[in-house]
Amino acid sequence: MTGKLVDWFLCNRRELPFRNSSNPYYILVSETMAQQTRMAALIPYFERFIDSFPTVASLAEADEAEVLSLWAGLGYYSRARNLHKAAREMCARHNGAVPDSEKTLRALPGVGEYTAGAVASIAFNLPCPAVDGNVRRVYARLFASDGGDVAGWVRSLMEDAPPRLVTESLMELGALICTPSAPKCGQCPVSEVCRAFLEGKVTQFPAKKQKPVKREKHRIVCVARDEKARVLLRRRTERLLHNMWEFPTEERLLADGFAVTRESGPLGTAKHVFTHIVWHMTAYEASVTYDRLPEHYQWAASPRGFALPSAMRAWICLIFAEK
Ligand code: SF4
Fold it and tell me: What is the distance in A from the centroid of ligand 1 to the CA of 116?
């Protein structure tokens, strides 16, 4: 089956900006971005990121704020922080190079089993499995089983074809053909050995997991302007979206020593869904007074240069009249 899978990949693979390169740094950046993000969505982010930080050293030298601002909108910002820390560590310990062993890759901040396997196999052609949700789904359907040694199976495929191609073929099969819903079994290169397909049980695998209940949080967002019409922004100190900028909530302004007066009725509402929490936001024009502007607040004439997360997108358009 490995031959059919790889042949299919070589004929059907998508052109991606990092695909025709075995530059380990590009692979590390793209694989870090790809966690929890669709490939099509990350391409412009990847291109901007590599334009700004073409090497490990250039990323290591950057400010965290600069890194976060290029990541703004991709979500899961701990990935950006860890990638930045990893670049600094690669400069300090590995001469500015991405390590060429799975074990050393795993020791870098934010590099887990999957990313280490992906970089080791794609960039260095080492027989290291990269098992993500796509590969687990393909395995569950091929073997009509929700258990099993997925990594061992991938390793066995790597005995029959270059590890680089096995990793990319499995990823591509999961992304294009063996998709979570409505898999295209009629176009699948491995359908003749797929147990779920042969037994008519494709929809049963993988078994559906119960989604965790998300916490609901209501936030009053304050749009405060100064005499130059600049808008007040706050750099978050909380763990969630740490160091990203936001339009401050009334609750935070009061806790940070501001006096706040709402000056309008609701300007609009927006909702943002995180993994474990949902923000329901309502914005108001507000005026604020304070003794001394805390260092994590700033008046902004434009959103440029501020790492504003996608949770703020609705307000960015409304307040700065920019997309
Ligand atoms: Fe997935 Fe269908 Fe191919 Fe089986 S035959 S691997 S279910 S796409």
Answer: 26
- Could you report the per-residue pLDDT of 284-307, keeping only the tens digit for each? 999 999 999 999 999 999 888 899
Calculate the alpha carbon distances from 176 to 130, 205, 303, 305 in Å. 18, 17, 36, 36
CATH 3.90.79.10 residue spans of the chain: 215-320
Q: How many angstroms does the Cα of residue 141 sit away from the middle of ligand 1? A: 6
A 10 A CB-CB count for 135 gives 23
- Residues forming CATH 1.10.340.30 domain(s) in the chain: 2-204
Q: Which residues are catalytic?
A: 31
DSSP codes, 35-86:
TTS-HHHHHHHHHHHHHH--SHHHHHHS-HHHHHHHHTTT--THHHHHHHHH
pLDDT digits (tens, 9 = 90+) for 3-51: 999 999 999 999 898 887 889 999 999 999 998 888 888 999 999 999 9
Instruction: Give per-residue pLDDT as tens, 169-217.
Output: 999 999 999 999 999 999 999 999 999 999 999 999 999 888 889 999 9
What is the 30 CA–ligand 1 centroid distance (Å)?
A: 26
- Is domain 2-204 in CATH 3.30.70.100, yes or no? no
Say which CATH topology domain 215-320 has.
Answer: Nucleoside Triphosphate Pyrophosphohydrolase (3.90.79)
pTM recorded for the entire structure: 0.83
The best mutation among 1, 137, 141 to test binding of ligand 1, ranked by most ligand atoms within 8 Å of the C-beta, falls on 141
